[in-house]
Design a protein that fits this description.
Alpha-Beta Plaits; five-stranded antiparallel β-sheet; 33% helix; binds flavin-adenine dinucleotide; binds (2R)-2-hydroxypentanedioic acid; binds zinc ion; flavoprotein; FAD
């Protein structure tokens, strides 16, 4: 077998953030004449200059940019007009969906024009035999799920931000979430996109198709999956949805060691097989943080070092219950779990999911959070937490780990009262070097944005980075789309 040896990762020698934060002088500043032009082709109500902080601050409150103006186009044609105008006039822009991204990708760094997709949410059609959805990109994920539920379907992915994030943002970040173990990544579901390019014509591209199988050409819509608003603005999405399960079972398991968590995962895969739909981990520090910061109490009787939330989704409750019960019995008889609760009602299941889905909010209440979203081989998954506990000592307020264990994706969150330079120096680049040295990825599902830009070369073949930059130049010849980030 041919093994490609990657060159040793390049270490940053100075603060990249400081270098990248400088405004690019080639960009024009938004003038009164530009605002008038925007009002001309979008209407007055679609141009907002004041009270725009909810568009210029991210969900964590840790990324803020001044911004200049927020535009609310209502159609692909209006997005095209904006991009043509901005490209001709060298005005930098940032596309924004629900603004729930966690890497600072959706907010302006300087005075970029924000293109909010909030109003592009009218077109919706669904083929309920083939399970194919076509909709505007500004639809909120939860709204799509509710619409599909009436037709017996659901979106193939789910995340804690579902009440605010948009399908266009989900595609742009290639969102993962809590059902990936069952339905696969968005790569498996995306069929087609309408995209507007940031060139002088505001070129509109209709990529892919609305049929399930199409190998006519390169799979161009997939270039935009995880493109983080760097290549074009997505205005419409065509993708598959999945039948809504008729039976959903949830259980919370208390486990004494991480090794046993992995054994339980192996058993869940082999015994729950096709109905296993989530396998999520919360460690004891996460539980403590949920209690202290949000007043949320565990569902298990006594604290355990690890809690696993396991869920099945199927079509026959008797069958699924039988499988879940046999799985739990085997966990007990093999001494893999200390404690376990099977949700007896949807209210009990909701309580379990509330714990898992509130973890991102709970950590923010500590003050400042160093967030991490990394993939690792399972043997190193929790080792990272232990290594960082030892390294940070008492400098960190809290070190908590939750995540999508079934996908090898850990969210290690390290908190402090406020931004702490000494702690930050201990964390980076050490943490990302450690991840790459152990065969992991520094971004499992949230992307690079501003947060990880200094480390974006870590673990990546330089030729691949070069190819990415060439692609960016083809799509965005003037470099006006979402500058200072990702690529
Ligand atoms: P935004 O935050 O608005 O934008 C994200 C990026 O996409 C930006 O670079 C932006 O420029 C670009 N973009 C947005 N819309 C478009 C468009 N129409 N065209 C082109 N580019 C666009 N992520 C996960 O993967 N899994 C999780 O489990 C998960 N859980 C979360 C839980 C919470 C509580 C929160 C706050 C966030 C979570 N996230 C998760 C992160 C976030 O919700 C996802 O990244 C989501 O897909 C972002 O969608 P959005 O519409 O909010 O995009
Ligand atoms: C989740 O899985 C999200 O809850 C957010 O991806 C992760 O808060 C985080 O670090
Ligand atoms: Zn996640």
């Amino acid at each position: 077998m041919f093994l490609k040896i990657l060159p040793r990762i390049r270490r940053p020698t100075r603060s990249y953030a400081a270098v990248l934060a400088a405004r690019h002088e080639g960009f024009a500043k938004v003038m009164q004449s530009d605002l008038m032009a925007f009002e001309n082709f979008l209407g007055q109500d679609a141009v907002k200059k004041d009270d725009i902080t909810n568009h210029t601050t991210d969900w964590t409150g840790q990324f803020k940019g001044p911004g200049s103006v927020v535009l609310y186009p209502k159609s692909t044609e209006e997005v095209s007009a904006i991009l043509a105008y901005c490209s001709k006039n060298k005005l930098a822009v940032v596309p924004q969906g629900g603004n729930t991204g966690l890497v600072g990708g959706s907010i302006p760094v300087h005075d970029e024009v924000v293109i909010s997709m909030n109003k592009i949410n009218k077109q919706f059609s669904f083929d309920d035999t083939m399970g194919i959805l076509k909709c505007d990109s500004g639809f909120i994920l939860e709204d799509l799920d509710n619409k599909l539920a009436k037709l017996g379907y659901m979106m193939p992915f789910d995340l804690g931000a579902k009440g605010s994030c948009q399908i266009g943002g989900n595609i742009a970040t290639c969102a993962g979430g809590i059902r990936l173990i069952r339905y696969g990544s968005l790569h498996a579901h995306l069929l087609g996109l309408t995209v507007v390019l940031p060139d002088e014509h505001g070129t509109v591209l209709h990529l892919g198709s609305s049929i399930r199988k199409d190998n006519t050409t390169l799979h161009t819509p997939h270039l935009f999956l995880g493109s983080e608003g760097q290549l074009g603005v997505i205005t419409s999405v065509t993708m598959t949805a999945v039948p809504k399960p008729k039976s959903v079972q949830s259980a919370m398991l208390g486990i004494e060691s991480f090794k046993k968590c992995c054994e339980v995962l192996k058993l869940a895969k082999s015994s729950l097989t096709e109905i296993l739909s989530s396998f999520e981990l919360l460690d004891d520090a996460t539980m403590e943080c949920l209690k202290t910061n949000l007043g949320l109490h565990p569902v298990l009787n006594a604290p355990t070092p690890f809690s696993i939330l396991v869920e099945t989704s199927g079509s026959n409750e008797d069958h699924d219950m039988e499988k879940m019960s046999a799985f739990l019995d085997e966990c007990l008889s093999k001494n893999l779990i200390i404690d376990g609760v099977l949700a007896g009602s949807s209210a009990e299941a909701t309580k379990m999911w509330q714990l898992r889905e509130s973890a991102p909010l709970a950590v923010t209440r500590d003050g400042y959070v160093y967030k991490h979203d990394v993939s690792l081989p399972l043997e190193n998954y929790y080792e990272l937490t232990n290594v960082m506990k030892e390294r940070c000592g008492s400098l960190a307020k809290r070190i908590v780990t939750y995540g999508h264990l079934g996908d090898g994706n850990t969210h290690l969150n390290i908190t402090s009262e406020k931004h702490n330079e000494e702690l930050e120096k201990l964390l980076y680049p050490f943490l990302y070097e450690w991840v790459v040295d152990h065969g992991g990825s520094i971004s499992a599902e949230h992307g690079i944005g501003q947060l990880k830009l200094p480390y974006s070369t870590f673990g990546k073949d330089p030729e691949e980075r070069l190819l990415t930059k060439k692609l960016k130049n083809i799509f965005d010849p003037n470099g006006i789309l979402n500058p200072y980030k990702t690529i």
